[in-house]
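Chapter summary example.
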Amino acid sequence: MKRRNFLRATASLAVLALPALAHGQAVKSVKIGVHLDQAKQASYYSLIQKDAIDLFVAELNAKGGVLGVPLEVLYEDDENNPVTTVTKVDKLASEDVSFILSIGSSATGLAAQTRANDLKIPLGSPANLAEQLTSSPPKKYYFRIPLRGKYEVQAVGQYIGKALKASKIAVVRDATQSGLVISDQWIKDLTAAGFKIVTVEQITPGSTEAMGQALRVKASGAEVVVVSGASIPDLANYIKTHRAIGNKAPLIGSSLFTAGGFLKLVGTAGEGFVYPDAIDPSRVEVKAIEDRLVTNLGERMRNQAVAVQAWEFMRLVIDAITRAGTTDREKIRDAMEATANFPIALGPPGTALSYGPDDHDLFTSADQVVLRSVVDGAYGPGLNFR
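The structure predicted for these 386 residues follows.
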């Protein structure tokens, strides 16, 4: 069939299969809203997720879309600002989106969570880490699949205690709102686990150097340095300075460092840097998704955990919409919560996702967290430390 005729035929089939809204009106597309940071500190991982989402949607629509109509994604730039995020959620709500994805920072994710919950719009995140996003019982309309902050910290604590046999920790963080939210939780949890925090050093966003912080960390006698926050460029500057002044204390970060241009920014100073990850790179499912991303978008998508997470979260949302059989927000929320034994390419091999009224998270234990390190300028294999 010629391309023009094929497209006409596809369009005709879509019209015959228009899904219904709650009030009975047919729609021409299923709309999903996404808020993200286009140009500021969170853009390093926002834009990688956006690229993965765009490819997923292109492939889905080429196969007929969802509920017989195309999937349409509406993007809004939150400018890495929680106040702006609220207005963007309101705008997406007015455009009849059936679901909202948060692919910006955890701070903007928290703002979106609160507003969308008020508006009764289901939403969720592929990669937001902040523990505050999870509550008990969970927010009724919020779902996510990334590592939870407390499980990251527990896994890192196991590594510091068992593998490094260290007890004195320095924490280096950036002063973005997300950076403070995330690092405060790390400090609290590491202290509760029995580690001594010997210094907390803070980097102003946009700083061109971190010499003062690096010298104070070295003078503190820290046996390990935890780099926790949300601004990859600022924290990469610290890591380079840490190495440049000859500090031999091991560096450990969060899963933030699996995103964007970290390896390019940090250069050779990143060698040996340890970080927790939501994915096990040896899994065949991870390799299959990565192959599609790299084939279509280039080598920049290789070893990008947040891209895999965005892909898998889109697959999860489409599964819920399909099971709901409608664009009705409440029914999609219910379908998300009813997700059971959904195979997912995150965590250890064999991981399956099941939500419930009291649990809207994938990760439930530190044992599901993979620790990896940078080896020869690339993200390396998992570490055996348990």
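To summarize the output: The mean pLDDT is 91.
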